[in-house]
Every structure is written in C-alpha cells, then in structure tokens.
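sorry to bug you again but im stuck and you know this stuff better than me. below you get a single protein, a line of residues and a line of whole numbers that encode the local backbone shape. mainly i need to know what kind of three dimensional shape the backbone takes. anything you notice is useful, everything is just below:

***
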Amino acid sequence: MVEIIQTNNKIEEFNIQIAGFKSEIKDFKKLINELAKLNNGCIIQLMNAEGIAGRKHAANAAIHAIKSFSRNENIANSLGLEICVRTSGQRQISQALKMLGITSGNINVCAVAIGCDDTIMQTLTSMLGERDDAVLEPEEDKLKKLYNITEIEVHTAGNVSNLLIERTALLITET
C-alpha cells in the first residue's frame, strides 16, 4: 500500500508493505545478517505477530514511526525499531522488544517493509517460510494479557485493535 504522509511540511509517498509468516527460525543471528545484506535503501522490521492486532495496527504504527522522525520526536535511533516501539505503545525500547521481539524457534512473524520494491515479500518468504497473513489477525485473549488490557478499556475503545491503535497515537502526546 502506498501511504501519502505529511512530513516536515511536505507531502511524501511511502510504500508500506505488511505480511504475516509462519516461521521456524533456526538461527536468529544468521537471519538478522541476511536481512542486513538486503539493505537496498528499504527498512524491514520483523515483530512477533502474537502482539499485532491486525494489519491496520501495524500500518498505523509504521505511519506514526515515520512521522516521529520528521518531527524529531522519535524514541529509537532507527525507523525499524521505532516501528516496534510504536506498535507496542511503549516508550521503553526494552519493553517493546520484550513484547514484540522475535526469537529462534517456531514463531509467527509480522514483517513491515518501508520503501522496498515489490519483490521484498517474496524474498522474505524464502527467508522466513510460509507466508500466512492470517497470523496478523488479532487474538484478543493473548493481546489482553500481553498488553494488560481491561474489559473496560476494550468496551470503551470498541475492540482490542482500536485500543492498541489509540495507544500508538497516545505516544505522540507523551514526547
């Protein structure tokens, strides 16, 4: 999806791609090194899909991350890590990584790619395994536990996805 975002008082286009993967990560460090070799001017952030409340949640966080850099209000030093921080709704990078970080083993992965060409998801499929966007669908019970969400908060926001998107937006007011 191409998002039109206002940054630094100008309108820019950002190609944001989001996909889910059912992965078996055997060697985490090797994966990170392979991702670094892909560096063709694009940003790729991998997150644990169990902490994602849908594609809209991840896309919203990516947009907020991009805007935070244009306003010099970023929390992390890299856009990829900023996406993770914004998705988690946390100001603490360590907490964001604890919630959304990936590890070796069987894991569902949410991949967010910004500014990559249209073949990036095919490349990630060869690295991560089976593409399955269903892993991005919110599992409300897991999300409530992970994010310490109360029933009152869910009722007020309408659903867990809306609540987590609101938490992402609230980080703006805390800087």
Q: What stands out?
A: The mean pLDDT is 89.
